[in-house]
Structures are given as C-alpha cells and as structure tokens.
Amino acid sequence: MELKEIEEFFKKNNVPSFRLKQLNDAIYKQYVSSFEEIKQFPKKLREDLNRNFNINELKLIETKKSNNTIKFLLKTKDEEYIETVLMNHNDGRRTVCVSCQIFCPLGCKFCATGANQYKRNLTKNEIIEQVLFVSRYLKNKNERVTNVVYMGMGEPFLNYENIIESIHILNDKDKFNIGARHITVSTAGIIPKIYEYAKFPLQTRLAISLHAPNNELRSKLMPINNKYPLPELMKACDEFVKLKNKRISYEYVLIDNINDSTKHAIQLVNLLKNRKAHVNLLIYNPHPFSDFKKPTIEKVKNFKKILDENNIQCSIRKSLGDDISGACGQLSGNKKSKK
Ligand code: SF4
Q1: Average pLDDT over residues 290-299
Q2: Which atom of ligand 1 has the smallest separation from the CA of 153?
Q3: Strand boundaries in 174-285, DSSP class E
Q4: Ligand 1 environment, Cβ below 6 A
C-alpha cells in the first residue's frame, strides 16, 4: 500500500490532512492489519479505504516456531512465496531477517535460496510489509522490532533502489524509528553497489557473504566471484571502511572439508589482518538442495582458535532456527521450492 496514493485519494475526496498522520501512526506505530481497526476514522472513510486500497499486499500462510526463532511464510499477489525470520536474542534484540527477492539469481552452491529458479525483485512495499508482519506479531507481546538485516532470500544489491527506500522507511522517526546502526545490508559482492552504498548518508552497516578465503575457492562456491573477484571486492570493502569508518561483518559458513581447514583459517587471517573486520562464523545447515555437510564441532573450534590467536575478531554465530529451515542459506520459500 502506497501512502502517496492514499494522500491523493484524501485530497480528491476532501478528507482533512490530519487523517493522513493518523493513518501513518495506525500503520507504523499501532501496526493495524486492516482499515477497520482505525477507529478514529469515520465508518464511511474506513469503508472507502477498504474498497480502494489493500493494507496488505502479502498474505501470511504459516508461521513456524522453534525456541528463539519464528519463520513467517508469506504469499505475494502473484502467488509466489517468500520467507521472513524473526530472531529473538537473549539480550533483548528482536531482529528481522527480510527477503528482498523471490529466490536469487546468484546460485551460491551452498544456498537453498539460490538452488531455486529466480523470479523477481520484491517491491519496496513487499520488503516493508515483512517488517510490519513481524511488528504485529511482537505487538501482542509488548515488544518491537529492534534490528533489521537484509539477509533473507535474494541479493539486496540487485534490488538496490527498493532496499534504499525501505531503509528510509525503517529509519524514519515517524514510522518504524529503527536506528540506522541497527540495520545491516548483506551482499555476496556486487562491487559497484558497495561503492554506491559507501556514499549512502545513513550510518547503516554492511555485511559481506564471504564464505571462502581465496579467489579460486570463492569462485567455485559463489559464481558471482567470477564477475567480481575477491581482490576487487576487498578494495571496495576498504573504500567502504574509509568513507564510513565502520567495520564490516564477514559471514563465513563453515562447510565440512570445503573451507574449514587450518589452511583456510590461515588464509582468512591473511585476508582480513589490518582490516576493520568482524567474522561471523556460521555452521553449515544441511538442506535438500546440496550434498555439503556440517563440519564437526572440533573443526569449528579449531578454525575459531586460529582467528582468535591472530587477533581477528570473530564469533560463532548460533544458527538460530536450523530446525525449522530458518537459518542462513536455508530460506527457500518452501511451499514451491524444488526438490
Ligand atoms: S547466499 Fe545469498 S547471494 Fe548466494 S544464492 Fe543464496 S541468497 Fe543468493
């Protein structure tokens, strides 16, 4: 739903302008899910809005819960499925992982999203509605969304304009009012957009889906690396750090016997030493779309130890929700995903 269209509708029908502010608050602060819930509006106005506009473009199909994670399966108007994940962290953060495309054209070898046929970019409204769905869910518990990460289905920087517009709405004090520092965009390495994002005025964060410490292996795991090779990617990252003075998060999913050896850890140290970096180590979550395996916990610990010993900041990110296929690389819009 576009507020601009409603604004025009209000003007045309001589609805006083303060109604627009009330509508904005109802949607973005009270998280109403229908016009009927806006009781300050006269009945006739609610009916008119109902006839002419849809407050939701997406339809909630199902929610799956595990301890700290809730996955929302949503259906678009054109009958496609996307997934949004809420992660409830012990420190009180409520992080929404949003999707930005219907599947993904980049086809990373370990990723369930990339194993499916890419369909299209999501619109700005479809991105924002994912946060609205989660906000409505949290409202019932007197909680609110504190963080948003663009790490769900799809490559955000292939949908750059809609991502940027959606960030403005998330950050807007009269809308979600989520601090820019609590918003992170992750990319597999669309280099021109990293340079553009480095000039984006808000203090939002950047994460790089790295997953390999050398160019050759990265090209094998992530075909986008053939177009935008690792050395060029690191130059773009350096420019981002220079302009923003912010460290970058590097996501590294450890896959058994692929990128989890001592040699790989040393290569990663050499790649990131003297860079403002934090490595999030993820443990590969097996899924039906690939034969890769989860590494043993000993291998994970050994990998982290080498990074620690060499003063590379890193943490093992607990893959919240791997039992509901809601963890990194597992989102597949599963009502329609291929087997
Ligand atoms: S890891 Fe990210 S960029 Fe790669 S295929 Fe999956 S969704 Fe696309």
Answers
A1: 93
A2: 7
A3: 183-187, 205-209, 248-254, 277-283
A4: 104, 106-108, 111, 113-114, 153-155, 188, 209, 329
